[in-house]
Amino acid sequence: MLKKHLKPILASLIVTVTFILLVRYLMAHPDYIDELKHIGGGWVVLILLLNTAALAMLAGASAVLIQMTGKHIAPKENFLLTMYSSIANFLGPLQSGPGVRAAYLKTKHQVSLRAYFLVTLLYYGIFAVMSAFLLLIGTRPWWQAVLASIAAAGASYTVIRYALSKRKKEQALLRITPRLASLLVLFTLFQILLVGLRYYAAMHAAHDSVSLGSAMSYTGAANFALFVSITPDGIGIREAFLYFAQGIHHVSTHTIIATNIIDRACYVLFIGLCLVFGLVMHLGSRFTANQPAAEANDQS
Question: I want to staple 136 with a disulfide (CB 3.0 to 4.6 A). Which of 44, 145, 184, 293 is the partner?
């Protein structure tokens, strides 16, 4: 009974705290709201749609990772979990999203934390290889992009092998089949491409003409900031990566700043919409769950 009453209270508390953090974030960065007022509504809608599509790809990758641990959750639950973890990733430091997912899956579905950690490393390895390729293929010879991918693959393999050697018991829990591995590669690929299109749209919204090749290289550099995001949404970290990689992607400092302001402004709006959507879904689920009981009372 206590658990039954605590769940809705805890859920409401999480939503409230998240909303407060989002409001405080906007108060600390009013330039995001100002920037949204000055760009065309069509660009905002396009970037929001690209964010939604990228979130769907991330949810697909998340579902595959869960299956690799031998578990399964409903698509709706998985999408909401991915959405909430993305909100946590945005508001919290040190890539809080995967931690939120792991804690939820452990509590609700008894997913081994160590097993989930191992398959998450696999996802990050694929992400790193693709980002390394993207970083160079847009502006450098193809063989340099291939070499960068091989180097990223070698580093990822070393890390994963070391992690596996320290967690031999968890290896028996893993279900990494060729089908699931292929799906993870596809979902990750489409996620990265959609994020790249998001940056490309933000560049054009800033009225800066950037080639598709430079945008691809820009995306690869921005993606690597993910691995050292010690600030909420990697503020400052992503910009630093992009600045030091200017010799590769050839995007001006002005464009980097303008693009990041527009991208983050739209992403703040996207996170806000996700929060509203999650609240509506939460209230809708509670209404649906309580409806039979109400009908039974009416009949009695």
Answer: 145
Phi, psi of 173 (to 5 degrees): -85, -20
Q: Is the whole-model pTM more than 0.90? A: no
What does the alpha-carbon distance between residue 221 and residue 239 come to, in Å, rounded to a whole number?
10
Mapping DSSP onto H, E and C, the string for 48-75 reads HHHHHHHHHHHHHHHHHHHHHCCCCCCH
Q: 173: helix, coil or strand? A: coil
H/E segment holding residue 242? helix 237-244
Closest of 51, 54, 62 to residue 190, by C-alpha? 54
What's the token pair of residue 274? Answer: 């996700």
Contact 256, 239 (CB under 8 A): yes
Query: Average pLDDT per run of 10 along the chain, which is 300 residues long?
Result: 49 57 66 67 92 96 94 91 85 70 88 89 94 93 94 93 78 85 96 95 83 92 81 73 89 83 86 83 53 45
